[in-house]
Amino acid sequence: MNQLEWQKKVIKEEFVNSSLEKEEKVQDPNRSFRFRKAKRFPSSLTNPLYSKNK
């Protein structure tokens, strides 16, 4: 397997994983809200250890 084939494989897997996540978010609005909140505020608001490590 050469470099280009490997990159295509990785990109395809990432695409499949992200589309699966989108489906989960649609099915479970509570989970998606928490997930989005955690992404939007990766600070001491949601994770007190984050600011110490940064």
Q: Quick recap of the structure?
A:
It contains 3 helices and no strands.
> What's the count of strands?
0
Oligomer: single chain
What's the helix-strand series? HHH
- Work out the radius of gyration: 16 Å
Helix content: over 70%
Largest sheet: none
Features:
54 residues, mainly alpha, 3 helices, 0% strand, rod-shaped
Outline the structure in words:
The protein is an all-alpha fold and 54 residues long. It contains 3 helices and no strands. It has helices at 3-27, 29-40, 48-53. Helix 1 (3-27) packs across helix 2. It is rod-shaped, with a radius of gyration of 16 Å. It starts with a helix and ends with a helix. The model has no long low-confidence stretch (mean pLDDT 63).
Q: How do the strands and helices of this protein lay out in sequence?
A:
Layout lengths: L2 H25 L1 H12 L7 H6 L1
